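Morning!

This is the sequence you dropped in the shared folder:
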Amino acid sequence: ARLSFVKIGESAGAGDLLSGRSYVFTDAFPLIGAGYYRLKQTYFDGTYSYGPQVFINYKAPLIIDLASFSVAKITGSKAIIEWETNKETDSRTFEVERSSDAVNFSRIGTLTAAGNSTVTKPYSLIDDRPVTGDGYYRLKLTDKDGEVAYSVTRLINFPEFAPTAIGNLVLFPNPATDYVETQIRDVAVEVTISSMSGKILKSKNFGKGEVLGMTVSDLNTGLYILRVKRISDNVVLGSGKFFKN
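The structure's back. Tokens below.
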């Protein structure tokens, strides 16, 4: 098929030169997708000639207007990552990345983006296992063409998240006020909380890989025992003591 061209700019020539000269022209509004360029050179007598055609495939830049991005602590020694967009064009995903040194990041979750939007869109993700001490978070934004951009980095600190070993289980936070948890297991388990006299006060089943956490805000101040038992054969995998403030 024959190509149709339109003029997008011009520059005055130098007339007669014995040496070469360079020219630069910037297309401020390139066509999205496949486009062709050519140079038309016009002489003083009105005649003209064309240079070779140049092909370029231009991708539109990633357009996501990030209105806000924050990280905060929530109950249970967890972190909530929240952000809002004012505008999205061909957006595909948001990946939340975390780091302990602000250099090496790893993905902790992915959310599907709105695609195309001109209204405020809220997003959030909870980090069940934030790092001890300083934790750095950022967003990786990807559009439908695979183009990537990153947000600014946010910092949060969890000094109280450092686990304390009691018995043969690690329970944290300890002492606990609202919530206590222990290590994730690779099997389905039952977690119980008992008084020091052995009376079971709370019980909850967890699937493989789930965070083993229990709400303790309704317990009286005092010392309690938490046990983890494998559901398949009722074998106790571990136990530990914690103090409820």
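Headline: The chain has two domains: 63-159, 163-244.

More detail when I'm at my desk.
O.
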